[in-house]
Design a protein that fits this description.
The strands form three sheets. The protein has a seven-stranded mixed sheet, with helices on both faces. Strands 9-10-13-12 form a four-stranded antiparallel sheet, covered by helices on one side. β5, α5 and β6 form a beta-alpha-beta unit. 38% of the residues lie in helices and 15% in strands. The protein is globular and about 75 Å long. By secondary structure, it is α/β, with parallel strands linked by helices.
Length: 387
């Protein structure tokens, strides 16, 4: 049975062939660390890491590639930013569409005297920004927000939120796990102070590599979450005060960084506008095919009704059929791989009206085809109508 992968929001698959090739080449022909070895092989790897920082800075319009910090994933990045910046007595604003990568660190921080308020979103995931000002307090210090929902694909108005933050003197932290490599992101234009990213989704790198980019000066307001050897200032036991060493202790995931480098180069050659256009064409086809099933009361799709203001993610509920069973049969009978459940975003599901049941999520990627979408629609018809 030919398999169809519709779980690109979890991790994109397949990757460009250059990604695993670069990782294999490093592991089999180089293998050295950076900032430790005094020999040419180590210097060559260091140059490749520096180039990866430059590629990320160029993609996101950061100020300086030295402000790019590598972590394991977007979750670690958000923990570093939130736990390093917020202090007891601080208050922050979030959207009601946030992933647990934001909400769990914030819930932990409430035990230390940090508080947060949720800016409401509508039942299609769009942000009620006009309600944000009424949630401000004297101790509000930042807004933390996802760029695009991992549940329904709705894109939040990051540029408008950036204006709101500048107007009220707030820091702006953005989780771009679902938008990086798919949607244009300009830190300067959007007023973003800290951008957290992961490498294994739209950036087409491997799992285990991510990072964040800071606006210049913000690093002095963040206490490092981790500390240790950096290969620099080895004569002192104190944490370096310069970037990126301040937030990069320990041995780096060099195979991951070199794989990410190839993913970024592939993105530059292909063009993220082309990627988004392709994914939205598949989304439009899928939504159109779902419409008769919705009219018959067999399926409920959540989020926006068309492709304006969204990414290539569609979540559905099957009426009268157990979601997990439908997802299992899509895989076992038709080879169609999806994600079912709450997708680590209970707040988003409450907003969308799908809590606690969850949804079956179809997330489209560059290598998916219209024929595969048609096969998924036909499979749903057969399962729901007993054809």
């Amino acid at each position: 049975m030919e398999k169809i992968y519709f779980d690109n929001s979890s991790t994109t698959f397949p990757k460009p062939k250059e990604v695993p090739e670069a990782m294999y080449r490093y592991m089999t022909t180089i293998g050295s660390n950076i900032n430790r070895g005094g020999y040419q092989a180590a210097y060559d790897v260091e140059e490749a890491v520096y180039e990866t920082r430059q590629l990320l800075c160029r993609l996101f319009h950061g100020e300086d590639c030295k402000q790019v910090v590598f972590t394991k994933n977007v979750t670690e990045s958000l923990n570093v930013i939130l736990k390093g910046f917020l202090k007891p007595g601080d208050h922050v604003l979030v959207s009601s569409m946030e992933h647990n990568a934001v909400m769990r660190p914030l819930q932990q921080l409430t035990e230390q005297g940090v508080s947060f308020s949720r800016i409401p979103c509508r039942s299609d995931g769009t942000l009620c920004l006009d309600q944000a000002e009424g949630l401000l307090r004297e101790n509000t210090r930042a807004v933390v927000m996802t760029h695009a929902s991992n549940v329904c694909g709705t894109i939040l108005p990051i540029e408008e939120v950036g204006v709101f933050c500048r107007t009220h003197g707030l820091r702006f932290f953005v989780d771009c796990a679902q938008s990086a490599g798919v949607c244009p992101i300009d830190m300067a234009k959007m007023g973003i102070d800290a951008l957290a990213f992961t490498g294994h989704k739209g950036l087409l790198g491997p799992q285990g590599i991510g990072g964040f980019i800071l606006k210049k000066g913000l690093e002095t307001e963040l206490d490092p979450l981790l500390s240790g050897g950096t290969g620099s200032l080895s004569h002192t036991e104190f944490v370096p005060d310069f970037m990126p060493d301040r937030f990069e202790p320990g041995t780096m995931n060099l195979p991951g960084i070199l794989g990410l480098r190839e993913g970024l180069l592939w993105l530059e050659r292909t063009g993220i506008d082309n990627i988004l256009r392709h994914e939205l064409e598949l989304t439009k086809q899928f939504l159109s095919g779902l419409q008769p099933m919705e009219e018959d009361g067999q399926i409920r799709s959540v989020g926006l009704p068309d492709t304006i203001g969204r990414t290539g993610v569609v979540s559905v509920q099957t009426v009268g059929r157990e979601l997990a069973q439908v997802a299992y049969e899509l895989d076992s009978r038709y080879g169609i791989m999806t994600r079912v459940g709450l997708h680590c975003a209970p707040s988003a599901h409450r907003t969308l009206g799908t809590f606690p049941t969850g949804t079956i999520r179809f997330s489209f990627g560059w290598w998916n085809t219209p024929l595969e979408v048609e096969r998924a629609l036909q499979a749903l018809k057969e399962l729901l109508y007993g054809i």
